[in-house]
Amino acid sequence: MTTSAPPSLAARTTDEVRSLLDDPLLHELHHGLGGPYHLLFPGRFDANAAAFREALAEAGVEGQVYFAKKANKAAVFVERAAVLGLGVDVASHGELREALAHGVRGADVVVTGPAKSEQLLRVAVLQGSLVAVDAIDELDRVLALAAGLGRTARVLLRRLPPGQPHSRFGLDEDECETALRRCSAGPVDVEGFSFHLSGYDVRQRADLAGQLVRLCLHAREMGLRADRISIGGGFAVDYVGADDWRRFTEEHRPEHYHADKTFSGFYPYHSPVAGADALRAVLGATPAGEREPLARLLKAAGVRLLAEPGRALLDQAGCTVFAVQGVKERDGYAVLTVDGTSLSLSEQWFESEYLPEPVLVPHTEESDAGPFPACVGAATCLESDMISWRKIPFPLRPVVGDLLLYLNTAGYQMDSNESPFHELALPPKVVIEHPSDSVRPRWRLDRHP
């Protein structure tokens, strides 16, 4: 039995989403589509991209923003990247094909990921894309491909973070020197350096960026171009308020979860420095061993800064909608079953929980007042397939036919792990737009069969 009330953790949202809560559109879409679905808000993507560009401009730093496509498979975000002149970060031949097909120029694509396939490298070289080289054997393949195609490959050399020596990404100091020597005599243009850094620590990212600036100066002494660095992604998203997050982390305990479920850790759902402000913080930080902020180091060295945000460009750019199809009473709480699976809310598959709580959208005005604690299970026969283990304190008693709107799921949540388990259809993506000549929002499917 639950002996204390489970803490609430309301998600930040936007006026655009709030306006939909009282609009019959949400229930109409569920009826018409016949199951769960995702909402996409391209206007938010545009605003986030503008904020990142503004951060570069304020610091007086030349640079390029790339959308990390792995964060969401929707076509609309790549389409917006093409229209806005953003770059796109891809890690597979399929992602590269999608970017090119939706109008992104080959020169505006950066190809990341380890041990890239021959097909991916070949198309990247032919299209003039920038390739982040992760290993010596990969560099040898790029050199051979470029020579065979009669092209000059554009490359960044990915540096292994000294503070994360066990990372499987990047070249250590000796390998980096070997790579520079091979590049100086091969059909490649070394445009600079990059790194893959886990976590959201601003200081670590600034310190490593400062080291890459020095690497650029060293490479130039060898006759190489080296005029840009990529600091990757790792720009946090602020999902919930500071007080709510503090209270939640202090009060939550196993009894607040179905089956007393415990977790090893959670995403930092509150971040005091997030999105474009995190980029500002990196540019304003003074790297270890330096006397000036990173922005001044970049300008003095004539080095451009590349950033590859994924989640941060998708902040508030999407939501996920499930319908309640069963309510099972337990001792002090209920288990709701919805018409989708946790494959559409990926955090569960990383042994964690998506903590920002969903908004209940009733289909009737005759609901009992809460709070009414309930966890959320999926429509499968797997005991572990829980969308929310947490006993969420809903303000009303959920009933069959109500909708649960999980907020801010576009970044890595809504489609990273989706699979048609039990032959359940994948939730379609619905693009929501607000044209100036219409009072109500308009919608369209992101992709047609």
**Rg:** 24 Å
- Beta content comes to 15-25%
CATH topology group of the largest domain? TIM Barrel
Q: Tell me, what's the shape?
A: elongated
Structural class: alpha/beta
Q: Give helix % range.
A: 25-40%
The level 1 CATH classification of the largest domain is Alpha Beta
Mean pLDDT across all residues, rounded? 95
Count the strands? 17
* Tally of separate domains: 2
Structural description of this entry:
With 449 residues, the protein is α/β, with parallel strands linked by helices. It has 2 domains: 15-41 and 316-445, Beta Barrel (Lyase, Ornithine Decarboxylase, Chain A, domain 1); 42-236 and 271-314, Alpha-Beta Barrel (TIM Barrel), CATH 3.20.20. It contains 12 helices and 17 strands. Strands 1, 10, 11, 12, 13, 14, 15, 16 and 17 form a 9-stranded mixed β-sheet that branches. An 8-stranded parallel β-barrel has the order 2-3-4-5-6-7-8-9, surrounded by 7 helices. β16 (429-433) and β17 form a beta hairpin. α6 (118-127) crosses α7, α9 packs across α11 and α9 (202-221) runs parallel beside α12 (294-301). The two termini are 47 Å apart.
Give a short synopsis of this structure.
This protein is an alpha/beta fold and about 450 residues long.
